[in-house]
Amino acid sequence: MTFHHAATRHTAPAIDAPAKAKFGFWSSMADLVRLVMRSRAQGLKTRLGAALFLVLLGKWTGVIGPLMISRAIDRLNTGHSGGQAVFTAFAGLVMGFVALRFIANAAPYLRDTIFTPVSQMALAQSSKETFAHALGLSLNFHQGKQTGGLARIIDRGARSTDFLLRSVVLNLGPTVLELLMAAYVLTSRFNWRLATVAVATIVIYIAFTFGISNWRIKHRRDLNDADSRAAGLAVDSLMNYETIKTFGAEGRMVAGYETALIDYAYAATKANTSLQLLNGIQAVVLNLGLVTVTLLAGMEVMAGRMSLGGVTACILILQQVYAPLFSLGMNYREIRQAFIDMEQMLDLRALKADITDAPGARALPPASERGAELRFTGVGFQHTARSVGLDDISFVTPPGTTTALVGPSGSGKTTMVRLALRLLDPQQGAVLIDGVDLRQVSQASLRRAVALVPQDVALFNDTLWANIAFANPDASSEDVWAAAEAAELSAFIDGLPYKMETKVGERGLKLSGGERQRVGLARALLANPRLLVLDEATSALDGPTEAAIQATLRKVRTGRTTLVVAHRLSTIVDADQILVIRRGRIVERGDHEALLAKAGEYAALWRRQTRGQNPANARGAVTATQLS
């Protein structure tokens, strides 16, 4: 079979492209509407319709209610000789006013009750989509992220969507409509001068609110940045507490956390001070407007153009308008602040993963009983953070064989493993499994075909059973126990009080390094991959356990291909092919005996690791000396 991939250059970005999200009010509102429609809330359209109807009903009754109390006062004022009939009419109008006020006040509560399932499902949908997007980003992104800060971005961004739905759809829009209703009523029922003053007051209020709120945006952004730094430092410290204790660095970490909190406190002080300034100016504007309207209404009464009830109605209408105006000011501030909260989430969701399924990506061909063929053809890859990358790497691992990668740290072994797993894409050449370029294969089928046992196995804070069965949730109890036994875990598990239900702690820190590696190995074996990748998978094991595991690995290699990264050469002496990597190139290749016979770099490494041992025992008893 002939391959022509080596002559083709495939350029892939080294990191996720940090495309800046284009953030705008209307585009964000459109995104929110689409989010609501994707939320799958029960009775979605019915709930939306009912909530909007209640919003309109509450605003309309709130505006026309004062007209009834105006008529009631006028009836009482002009009907002194009417006796009981006048009072009955007055009482009826008052009861009507109270009923309208009750509807206006009760509508928002009923609206929230109906709309809450929709907003909560939208919040859940936003969190899920952002979380899924973050998990789908590439290895480079996750290696550079700060876990606590990322979690806070997802949480704040999702909660801001819930707030924007409530404030914009159910408060800000209806408030504008209520202002128009009030202006119409003041103009049509009383005097255009009253409406002019009321509208002018509202315009001045909105101008001050928007202007000062925009000025406060920087304070909120600084507040969020300080909050994220403090949260990220706290999570990093708690996750790495063992390292901190080992080096006696508690004081330094607390000092760094204190600095972050002080920055947060300083930013919070500025944000709060500017908020109080805004509240004070808003109160002055609204009260001046109320005084002016009241004085104008009094002048109209003196001129005989307005009744006393009209004055009361003007004051009540203005107060009714002012109530949402206070809410408008708060909502605008909070909306802008929610936009800031959403910015980081949208920037995160704007990142494009550099490892994606190609259009028309297909599944890997069915596995053979011998395992997979792994082929590198002219592969080149250059990290942005390294001066030396892979250069023209070509080799073939036939089905059912074992290929070992050896060489000094930083030579490119781990990069080759990541390319084989398609955690990275080559910038030149191609990586193929069973004759198919990995870039043309769906990631789902590739993940089912390969399994990795890393040197540092990270486990979930769950039971042993859950961690082993993670590779195959549908596995039977017998299969899970068989995988544990193959990884030399059964005796260890039998000695635990809760057996398979034992919790391993965060990242498996309740287990020793060797125990974590055996759990990782059991998990990989349960996946039954056609390509098994072992990245120094037995480095944390003691001698007898390592020997047992090596014997197990020799047995489980049957029917699968194995790619091994090794520092201890004794673990790969029976490999079918050994590749010696230095500075991103293959400098030697062959089996153990052939490479020793060459008396080259591999032979020098072997002598260094077996120095001082009995030559007869050197093949099976090399100590844990690591390559320099």
Quick check: average pLDDT? 77
N-to-C SSE string, H for helix and E for strand: HHHHHHHHHEEEHEEHEHHHHEHEEEHH
CATH architecture of the largest domain, by name, is: Up-down Bundle
- Superfamily (CATH H level) name of the largest domain: ABC transporter type 1, transmembrane domain
The largest beta-sheet arranges its strands as 6-7-8-3-9-10
Strand content: 5-15%
What is the count of β-strands? Answer: 10
Structural class: alpha/beta
Low-confidence stretches: 1-22, 614-628
Global Rg: 36 Å
The major pleated sheet works out as: 6 strands, mixed
Oligomer: single chain
Helical fraction: 55-70%
List keywords for this structure.
628 residues; alpha/beta; Rossmann fold; ABC transporter transmembrane region fold
Provide a quick synopsis of the model.
This protein has 628 residues and is α/β, with parallel strands linked by helices. The chain has 2 domains: 25-350, ABC transporter type 1, transmembrane domain (ABC transporter transmembrane region fold, Up-down Bundle), CATH 1.20.1560; 374-615, 3-Layer(aba) Sandwich (Rossmann fold).
